[in-house]
Design a protein that fits this description.
Elements (H helix, E strand, L loop, with lengths): L1 H25 L6 H7 L4 H16 L2 H6 L1 H7 L5 H26 L1 H31 L5 H20 L4 H8 L3 H33 L5 H17 L8 H16 L21
Length: about 280
């Protein structure tokens, strides 16, 4: 009985995959990402989304926290910086498990917005705590509450990352592209991700020396821009086929350019888009 109940959903999914494969074969097979950008205007906004998610994920500062956590916790006044690093890692794992359980019920876009917003607020909080510590040090004071406040904001930063900005860019990236474009688009996105990762890892010490207690402000600026972009141009993908997601992208692009929502060759009316559950 249970197999009979899920059979229609399985058949619909197989039919959608066959349609994607057919569209990919008709479109000339796999192409590089630059050719996709030049020849497929309908894929430009998905490509921008994939790039924004990878750049935002790495330039959010999360790896600055993990790569230099011991140094940070030491400057925060912890007696055992290694214990702080282990605590951050444990919080990271627990938050990742929670995100895995919530992704299907809460939706990708909602978790992404909540996570980015949480990281932004946490980075502002860390900055405020570090400024307070700098002022206290200038007066030769040591306020332990500011030490723990800065550590607490960093832990909140890590939790917010794992709720959405950590896993979801990879999940959404695989869902927003048709089969013929997916490999090239995600390969380019992964390469961009690692370039930004390296830039943060190599550049953070110099940035920390130059900015001091304001070192998290550039990360906060990136997170704010990413939050605004996601709120405006990233659709929900849960429970939608690739065709429906592509139609939603065309609608978002049309709103941005103030053109009519229906483009040549849309093929699927906007009224046929299934709304995400919940």
């Amino acid at each position: 009985a249970e197999l009979a109940a899920v059979a229609p959903a399985v058949e619909a999914e197989l039919a959608a995959l066959e349609q994607e494969l057919g569209a990919g074969a008709g479109g000339g097979g796999r192409r590089g990402v630059l050719l996709l950008w030049r020849d497929s205007p309908s894929l430009r906004l998905p490509l921008l989304n994939a790039a924004a998610m990878m750049v935002g994920q790495q330039l959010s500062g999360i790896n600055a926290v993990f790569y230099y956590s011991t140094t940070f916790f030491s400057s925060a006044g912890l007696d055992s910086p290694v214990a702080g690093t282990l605590l951050a890692s444990a919080v990271n794992v627990l938050a990742m498990l929670a995100s895995s359980a919530m992704m299907e019920c809460a939706g990708r876009r909602r978790l992404l917005l909540v996570g980015i917003g949480g990281m932004f607020l946490s980075s502002v909080g860390v900055t405020a705590a570090l400024i307070g510590k700098a002022r206290a040090s200038a007066h030769h004071e040591d306020d332990w509450s500011l030490n723990w406040l800065s550590v607490s904001f960093v832990l909140c930063f890590v939790i917010a990352f794992e709720l959405g900005p950590g896993p979801i860019p990879w999940q959404i990236g695989a869902e927003i592209f048709p089969e013929h474009a997916r490999a090239a688009a995600m390969s380019a996105a992964a390469a961009l991700n690692w370039v930004c990762n390296a830039a943060v890892g190599l550049g953070f010490p110099a940035m920390s020396s130059a900015l001091g207690s304001l070192v998290f402000l550039p990360f906060a600026a990136v997170l704010l821009l990413w939050l605004l972009f996601t709120a405006r141009f990233t659709p929900e993908t849960r429970g939608r086929s690739v065709d429906e997601i592509q139609v939603e992208f065309r609608r978002l692009a049309a709103l941005g350019s103030r053109k009519p929502a229906r483009a040549e060759g849309d093929g699927v009316p906007l009224s046929s888009i299934r709304q995400p559950q919940g």
